[in-house]
Design brief:
The complex is a heterodimer of chains A (about 200) and B (about 220). Chain A is mostly helical. In chain A, about 70% of the residues lie in helices and about 0% in strands. The longest helix of chain A has 30 residues, at about 35-65. The mean pLDDT of chain A is about 85. Residues about 1-10 of chain B have low confidence and may be disordered. Classes of the chains: A mainly alpha (about 200), B mainly alpha (about 220).
Chain lengths: ~200, ~220
């Protein structure tokens, strides 16, 4: 339990998807103009992460890894399908995003309209595939670990996008040099926020 | 179909003004990173040193060029409703090839890039160019467009990597370039440049310089 809590805190603050690995930057910069839409996108990304990462982990453990198929028959014990992992992961992610899109459209049309084009874009959000690949690389051993890690990463991403949106809403009234306006200042702001987040480094519970 | 069209194209000048423009524009005025805001994720994480940055730039260029070529050759046969899945499958197949090649020939770099090779799949440059260009143009211009955008992306990557490696560890492509006398005189490498945040700030400054040179790109 303690281990899981530690993992959660680490994935939210220290291994933050945006500030430590820059994953999901494209939609992070494009959607962070107002707090309201960024809230919606943050929730959607977190949700998709919680669903896709465990599914991908299960597929990886019971289908793709070296020797993973030994539960089918002993003949497959030497089989290593891990080179297929990219294509399987992205297919799972694309399918689940499609599903989420349909659910959101049905139950919350206003959120659906607000998110607009960005929902399908979650499929190509690097953070989603990134978490699946990090899970594979770090060899987490149980599904609870994977779920906690993906939830933490989602929350970290959510925090990052909402706080950047809040800053960008305010900064509209400041007098920034013209060539730096918009994209340039968003990069520098993210850099400064990343430096602030670095102060969490080394925290262990 | 693609080879047929390529042959036909060869009768036209291969490098007509339009094609040259496709190569040149992404380097500056339509740069995928600083203007189109595509493919930033990987641009930042692999730029601590020059070598991984170069390998990454090369891989992205190859994948962009060939996925543009393939999708453009298939563009009339792909039903628009499932086009995203088709595009993803083509990209993923190409990325798997690149990943296996990297593992076979430059294993140390491949280890350093870790998950970021796989993340080429979700690099927005790929989907962006496929949607914006390859779905509506012939294979040869699409191929060139892919190369142009890959190189434009690589340019920024190499620039950021240059500054980060130079100031962060006093090296250039793995070789120490700052003479020992400097260190003896009290010069210290700037450790902050190696950390993630400085990649963001470096790109921010590149954008600043680029936009003050090209006033047309300024946001309102």
């Amino acid at each position: 339990m303690e281990n899981l809590f530690n993992l959660f805190v680490r994935s939210v603050f220290i291994d933050n998807m945006i500030f430590a690995y820059f994953l999901g930057m494209c939609s992070y910069l494009a959607v962070s103009k107002t707090v309201k839409t960024s809230l919606g996108l943050g929730v959607a990304v977190t949700f998709v992460l919680i669903v896709t990462a465990p599914v991908n982990w299960l597929l990886d453990t019971y289908l793709l890894k070296a020797g993973a198929l030994s539960w089918v028959s002993a003949d497959f014990a030497t089989l290593d399908l891990s080179y297929l992992s990219f294509i399987i992961f992205i297919a799972v992610i694309a399918a689940i995003v499609q599903l989420v899109e349909m659910v959101v459209e049905k139950f919350s049309p206003s959120l659906y309209n607000a998110l607009g084009i960005f929902l399908p874009l979650i499929a190509v959000n690097c953070a989603i595939l990134g978490v699946a690949l990090f899970v594979q690389e770090r060899e987490y051993t149980s599904i609870s670990e994977v779920t906690v890690y993906s939830f933490g990463s989602g929350i970290g991403w959510f925090l990052a996008i909402v706080s950047l949106a809040a800053i960008r809403e305010k900064i509209r009234y400041s007098n920034i040099p013209a060539p730096l306006r918009g994209l340039g200042i968003a990069f520098i702001l993210t850099g400064l926020m990343a430096i602030a987040f670095m102060s969490f480094m080394g925290i262990k519970i | 179909m693609s080879s047929e069209q390529l042959e036909k194209k060869e009768k036209d000048p291969m490098f007509s003004a339009k094609v040259v423009k496709l190569l040149k524009n992404p380097l500056n005025l339509e740069n995928p990173i600083t203007v189109q805001v595509l493919g930033i994720c990987s641009a930042l994480a692999v730029t601590v040193q020059m070598k991984p940055a170069l390998v990454m730039a090369l891989s992205v260029t190859v994948v962009t060029a060939f996925s543009n070529l393939i999708i453009s050759a298939l563009r009339n046969t792909i039903p628009s409703r499932i086009r995203i899945i088709v595009q993803l499958v083509v990209i993923a197949a190409l990325v798997i090839i690149v990943d296996q090649l990297l593992k076979a020939y430059v294993y140390d770099v491949s280890k350093k890039l870790s998950v970021f090779v796989g993340l080429i799949i979700t690099n927005c440059i790929l989907m962006g160019r496929l949607e914006a260009y390859a779905m509506a143009n012939k294979p040869w211009p699409s191929f060139v467009d892919g190369i142009g955008n890959g190189v434009g992306y690589g340019l920024i990557l190499v620039m950021v990597a240059f500054f980060r490696e130079f100031f962060g560890s006093g090296k250039f492509y793995g070789f120490t370039v700052i003479p020992k006398a400097f260190y003896d005189a009290g010069y210290v490498n700037n450790g902050l440049m190696i950390l993630p945040p400085m990649a963001l700030i470096t790109i921010g400054i590149i954008i600043w310089i680029q936009r003050s040179k090209n006033r047309g790109l300024i946001d309102n």
